Amino acid sequence: MMMSGMAFWPGSAVAPPAVAQSDPATVRDMQPSGFQAYLSGLRPKARAMGIRDATMDGVFPTLTFNPRVVALDQAQPGGGPESPIPAFEPYRRQHVDAARINRGRIAYQTNRSRLTRIERETGVPEAIMVAIYGHETNYGSYVGDFDLLRSLATLAFEGRRRALFEPELLATLKMLDSGVPRGRLVGSWAGATGYPQFLPSVYLRVAKDGDGDGKADIWTSEADALASIANYFVDAGWRRGMPWGIAVSVPAGLDRGAIANRTTAPRCPRVMERHSRWLTMAEWRRRGVMPLGGTTLADTDLATLIEPDGPGRTAYLLTGNYRVILDYNCSNFYALSVGLLADAVAG
């Protein structure tokens, strides 16, 4: 869930819900005393979550304001409704390249026994777990080195997106209070951490022990990271046995107006507006939309159509499981690349 490519939210890379913005802290408030006063004001909320005063006493005095993370946050592209959407193909070539596929196949074979067990238990395909792992941290090769507590405290205090970052700061404190070592609490500038790049609140919700040692260590244990990724997908509604989608050819005469989506999604509307309305596979076939490979969908399976590079280029029929990948990171480029990488790794 890192901020990369077309991602909207680091850690994710999960797109954030709409949140009210608090008034940013003033220059005067940016002094150390103002920063520490803000942290002290969090104590009642932290206590309500069961976080001990001893934990706060040990951490708060060590934290200082980090202007770099504020600059990084303010530099994020707006992605307004009028800004152009780039072509997908260059992104695909960068993120589903030979090196990533080959490393994915090595990770796939190295973890095969545990992947098989996790898929049997959850229904989440082995290759999908590996593809998320590959996209988020290039199979653990880069997980970020920002101090989560300092970064999240800074972003929450600065106030521009306090409603977003303050709960993640409190969740990080809860992790520390629950026994996660302080040294593990590093990651992206905006709070994504570990091999899966989970936000702290996501870690608290879905992280799992995958190797039986009693800990959910998503920072050094591939077994725990992969089990946690699968648990995230189960929590988001993954359907066992359903492909994420298939590549298709679209006839030149397809009436795109007849298949247009007429509803506005409450979350990530710009991502969802590129999808057609839902039709069964049988209905798509009647319109001349045909699978390009061996994988297909049952006649009764529902799917939406996306043409990421426009008419005349490869298009995809996408199932409800594709929406689960979007839940991890609400970007069509990200979700398509995860699906394509998974197919290549498994193939």
Structure report:
The protein contains 16 helices and seven strands. It is of the alpha+beta class. Helix 7 (112-122) runs parallel beside helix 12. 46% of the residues are buried.
List the helices and strands and how they pair.
Elements: H1 32-41, H2 43-48, H3 53-59, H4 67-74, H5 88-95, H6 98-110, H7 112-122, H8 126-137, E1 146-147, H9 148-158, H10 162-177, E2 186-187, H11 200-206, H12 222-235, E3 245-249, H13 269-272, E4 279-280, H14 281-286, E5 290-291, E6 302-306, E7 315-318, H15 320-328, H16 332-346
Antiparallel strand pairs: 1-2, 3-5, 3-7, 4-6, 6-7
Helix pairs in contact: 4-9, 5-16, 6-8, 6-16, 7-12, 8-12, 8-16, 9-10, 10-11, 11-12, 15-16
Tag the structure with descriptive keywords.
347 residues, alpha+beta, 6% strand, disordered N terminus
Total beta strand runs: 7
Helix content: 40-55%
Structural class of the helices, strands and pairings? alpha+beta
Largest sheet: 5 strands, antiparallel
Please report the number of helical segments: 16
Strand order of the biggest β-sheet: 4-6-7-3-5
The string of secondary-structure elements, in order, is HHHHHHHHEHHEHHEHEHEEEHH
The coarse silhouette is: globular
Summed over residues and divided by their number, the pLDDT gives a mean of 90
Low-pLDDT runs of 5+ residues are 2-23
Based on CA atoms alone, the radius of gyration comes out at: 21 Å
Q: Distance between termini?
A: 25 Å
